[in-house]
Amino acid sequence: MPTSVWRKHPAWIFFGRPLLLSVPFGLFFLILNKGAFAQFGDYYLVALFFSAFVNAATQANGKWVVPLLPKVQTPDGPSPNLIFHIASFAIVAVLASLAAALVLHFTLMPQMLGSAQAVAEIIMFALLFTGLFLGLIYAFFFQRRYVDRVRAEIERTAREEQEMKVAAEIQQALLPPRSRAGSWYDAAGASIPCRTIGGDFFEYFDLPDGRIGFALADVSGKGPPAALLAAMVQGIFDSHARRGDGPAATMASVNEAIAAREIDGRFITLFYAVLGPSGELVFSNAGHNPPVVLRRRDVVKRLETGGLLLGPFKGATFEEERSMLEPGDVLVVYSDGVTDAEAPDGEMFGDERLLECLSGPSVLSVEAVRDRLLGAVKSFVKDRPLFDDVTVLAVRYLGPASPAPPAVPIPQNSQNSGNQPTS
After folding, report:
1. Taking CA 107 as the corner, what is the angle to CA 102 and CA 112, rounded to the nearest 5 degrees?
2. Which candidate in 62, 356, 367, 399 could, as Cys together with 327 as Cys, close a disulfide (CB 3.0–4.6 Å)?
3. 195 and 150 inside one domain
4. Over the stretch 168-222, which tens digit does the pLDDT of each residue have?
């Protein structure tokens, strides 16, 4: 039988426990009274009376009195007030000791309460042993409760870690592939959350008119709240952007959808651009870090045109701008987690390091541009944890798509060679 089962069995509670506890009590009084060991049976019998009475009284107190005591709110729920809890057991233990002494006085030991001194000694020993055993009992009680809380906390943490791991996998699954290529462009992106999940996301997708749209967003905050809002914004943005209304109109529609939900204290920065096979870039920037256009290692332009942050302002309007990219130009979009990254001494990564990192050979692939910037941030912060999500998206315009080869007409006589006779 498991320990937790037999310790709660009535046979152990009402018979086994008193029989066992009477042994040290009997030895104590035997030694205290300098009795011979042959008298141990008498002392054991007296101790058994006290143990049985006190044990029965404390069991009754726990079942009928403790549930009626005033309650206090604890992390484990409503619980009896600790002072009343201890006092109730102390009182019943003393009263049970006096009851046991009274029974012994009228049965086996007529002189048990024969004098005021004897009564005082009974009360004194009752208080002494009550305090001693209550101290031991509550020491085990608090130790067990502490262990239970630690175990529950470990289990809760493990569940949360597993849930966060699953959430991170789902969030990464919501992002597009890290690399994508077409006949006239290639793109690469990555997002590294500062916690298990984060509030950044990037997107690239085909539009109905044959152009490609790409975006990068940064939701305020960190952790699960930011990740939940980011997933919502990503879904709203995706549904509006695929209509092909253009960056400015898309920004306005997304802003209205987010603002209508009235999420206090939250906002989103977002950069959205559309690139066509001719190299025409149309973009709108909603409060995001200005992306850079690189041409032969030099920064050609910072893309700032747009409007306010998304979310806080209903009815906000946005502007868009058109620009022409030349073959080989690279557009780099990044979140503020890049420039705001801090080294162990508190120095920030900043725009200068960003541009220095991007000024490498122009023949680098977009994957290499992305990885180079992310690697520079990682090396800069060293062992210091990131305090914001880091996201990078690089898009290179390769040049006009090569036209499809013209169809070669099939001679009429070849098409019907099986039905027409040869001349």
Report:
1. 50
2. 399
3. no
4. 888 788 888 899 999 999 999 999 888 778 889 999 989 988 899 999 999 988 8
Backbone angles phi, psi at 310, to 5 degrees: -85, 140
Q: Scanning the structure block, which residue is given the tokens 């001494």?
A: 345
Containing structural domain, residue 8: 3-162
Task: Please check whether residues 56 and 194 belong to one and the same domain.
Answer: no
| Distance, CA of 156 to CA of 163 (rounded, Å) | 10
The residues with which 306 forms a beta bridge, in sequence order, are: 285
Listed in sequence order, the residues at least 6 apart from 356 whose beta carbon sits closer than 8 Å to its beta carbon are none
- For residues 150 and 188, membership in a common domain is answered with no
Q: What is the CA radius of gyration of the chain?
A: 40
| 351 and 313 together in one domain | yes
The whole-number average pLDDT for the span 141-146 is 81
Residues 212 and 205 sit within 8 Å (Cβ to Cβ): yes
Examine the domain organization and report whether 214 and 297 are in the same domain.
yes
Nearest Cα to Cα of residue 206 among 185, 191, 231, 189:
185
Which residues sit opposite 26 in a β-bridge? none
In this structure, the answer to whether residues 180 and 298 fall within a common structural domain is yes
Nearest to 67 by CA among 91, 84, 54: 84
Q: Residue 290 belongs to a domain with what CATH number?
A: 3.60.40.10
pLDDT tens digit string along 301-350? Answer: 889 999 999 988 888 999 999 999 999 999 999 999 999 999 999 899 99
Tally the C-alpha atoms within 13 A of residue 334's C-alpha that lie toward its C-beta. 27
Same domain, 248 and 186: yes
pTM over 0.70: no
